[in-house]
Amino acid sequence: MKTSRIRPERRLTSATIAALAALSASCEDDVAPNKVCAAEVRVGGDHSCVRSSEGEVWCWGGNEYGQLGTTEIEPAVPRPLAVEHLPGRAVLLALSPGNSCAKLHDGSVWCWGDNTSLQLGHPSAGIMSATPVQVLGLPGVPVSLALGFSWDRKINSESPVTPQSFACAVLGDGSVWCWGANRRAQLGHGQYHGEPVGEPTRVVGLPPDVVQVAAGGLHACARTGSGRVWCWGDNLDGQIGDGTTSEVRGPTQVPLDGVAGVSANSDSTCVVRGDGSAWCWGMIFAGTCEVESPGRIRQTLPARVDGVESAISVQETCALLADGSVECWGINSAGQFGAGFVSGQTDGYGSPCPHHVQLSEPAGQLSAGGASRCVSSASDQLWCWGNNRQGQLGDGTLDLSKPTLAVPRPVRTLAWCDHAAR
């Protein structure tokens, strides 16, 4: 008999908020930076993590479900903490709100945090685990990992809104395997039902040469070595990209070729092509830098992002360019543009026109999640901007009393690299 899994509700008291504010203030003055040389940075929306060049993992931000992977019991920590009990050196990270995963040097995958959708992939993990647990049942070594999260759409006015979290991995043989929530067929195995799946199942209907997977809110996408993209899951906002808004779709090819990277967002998808252009579909700000749309619209086919040239990677609605600069577009309600709050934004919150992030040095990597963004610079420093309510920017500040704490220009995190000491 299957039992329902309910996400535990946690309410922050005024005393807790005051204590966290005091912690934030003390961090600004008293916490020394952690000397972490970033090999990889990932943003999960409510928290962020970095993998050091030695394979250690450090995380900061929201910790309500143990997603920081430490014995720290605070619901939010604005300073980097080392993940505890990883049984080896990490070589790859993936994050989503409430969850973190790492591939280790031996090819195994370990995850921690929320497990109400069985997304940790371990039968004895419980409803959450601050201790990393191994994902069981993967029949090979992953080359790409992705985690997805969304609050499910209401079926009717009386139905509850439930959390939907899932994970996907591309193996060395090109096959894709997913596990966790499946309310919108986001696992891609041909079944559409309300029960989560706690062990990896193979996505059916994909070509054999997949090299990358991306997980959004209730959908996922795979990129092949030949530059094609296939998407599946929820399509009510056109995020599958086939020109329709069919409610649920199996793997469907997007009519776009030459794709070099894909990013699946909460209700949209963006890619970068080999020619350096960026393309998006789903719920996006349409239009051009000269003629903007009146707000977000459902774009059911790929639309080119006006003004983005020479992009080498795309993360949500930001692109890393070949010269190390970063440009962002779309929503800017929390300062996601990294350029302050600029004029001319549609409804005061967004724009289809890319804005240049005000970085002090070229970026080497870019990651985005929710309303937060981070880059690692050429000198291995970490710079973040956007929403910092739960301390996910890692600069020692947070304010849980506000729905959003906007930081519209990049700030250096407390994790930084001291090359002279290496």
What share of residues are in beta strands?
Answer: over 45%
Low-confidence stretches: 1-32, 344-348
Largest sheet: 4 strands, antiparallel
The count of DSSP E runs of length 2 or more, i.e. the number of strands, is 30
Mean pLDDT: 87
Percent helix, as a range, is: under 10%
Distance between the termini: 55 Å
Strand order of the largest sheet: 2-3-4-5
The backbone outline, from C-alpha atoms, is: globular
Supply the number of helical segments.
Answer: 1
Helix- and strand-based class? Answer: mainly beta
Radius of gyration: 20 Å
Walk me through the structure.
Mean pLDDT is about 85; it is low at about 1-30 and about 345-350. The protein has one helix spanning about 15-30, and strands at about 35, 40-45, 45-50, 55-60, 75-80, 90-95, 100-105, 110-115, 130-135, 140-150, 165-170, 175-180, 195-200, 210-215, 220-225, 230-235, 250-255, 260-265, 270-275, 280-285, 290-305, 310-315, 320, 325-330, 350-355, 365-370, 370-375, 380-385, 405-410, 415. Helix content is about 5%, strand content about 45%. It is mainly β and about 425 residues long. The chain is globular, with a radius of gyration of 20 Å. The protein contains 1 helix and 30 strands. The strands form 8 sheets. Strands 2-3-4-5 form a 4-stranded antiparallel sheet. A 4-stranded antiparallel sheet has the order 6-7-8-9, with no helix packed on it. Strands 10-11-12-13 form a 4-stranded antiparallel sheet, with no helix packed on it.
